[in-house]
Amino acid sequence: MTTDFKSRIYLAGPFFSDAQNARLDEVAALLASNPTVGYVFEPVKHQQDEIVAEYGNGSLETAMKTKEWQDATYHADIQGINQANAVVAMLDFDIENGNVRPDEGTMFEIGYAIALRKPVIIVQYAQNDEPLNLMLAGSYTGYFWGKDDIQKLGTYDFVNFPKHLVKKNVF
Fold it and tell me: SUPFAM superfamilies under this entry (predicted)?
């Protein structure tokens, strides 16, 4: 039996610097090229334009400080995860400055997806010796680690979600 079903993906990850955006753009392009993916929700592309115009005078940086923008963004992201079949989460945060710990917002999105019993696919460009937290190690379906491995997102089966494991120390 063949099916035309394609998964909806929520792409989680920080987008506070050019380097973070470049990584997210590369992953989004790989997902868009994947024949098992039908839609990718990218929070960075849903920044509440009406609220930015009204409460931030056109400035996202100003709008981000308002309760209106924060509430709208939180609810849009939760809705994006609710509607997704899986979450692809960028674990790299500020690796250019030596910060290998993940972004708190991304960790929340992973936890929320796990609570909803949705597959979580972790993506990490930085191949370092930093151990993986036990809760992340026990919760992911796929872990794509390093630039070459990440390229496999273009052909990964986002309908059946086979395990794609990595050997990392866990703490």
Answer: N-(deoxy)ribosyltransferase-like
- The alpha carbon of residue 136 and the mean position of all alpha carbons in its chain are separated, in whole angstroms, by 14
CA 129 to chain centre: 22
Residues forming a β-bridge with 86: 9
Residue 36 lies in a domain: yes
Within-domain flag for 159: no
Total structural domains in the chain? Answer: 1
Q: Which of 69, 61, 78 is nearest to 118 (CA)?
A: 78
DSSP 8-state secondary structure symbol assigned to residue 133: P
Q: What is the pLDDT along the chain (171 residues), one digit of tens a residue?
A: 456 999 999 999 998 899 999 999 999 999 999 999 999 999 988 888 889 899 889 898 899 899 999 999 999 999 999 999 999 999 988 888 877 788 999 999 999 999 999 999 999 998 888 899 999 999 999 999 999 999 999 999 999 999 999 999 999
Cβ 81 vs Cβ 75: under 8 Å: no
Does the pTM exceed 0.85? yes
Length of the chain: 171
The residues, any chain, with a CB within 8 Å of residue 59's CB and separated by 6 or more, are 52
- Expressed as residue numbers, the domain containing 130 is 7-154
Is 166 inside any structural domain?
no
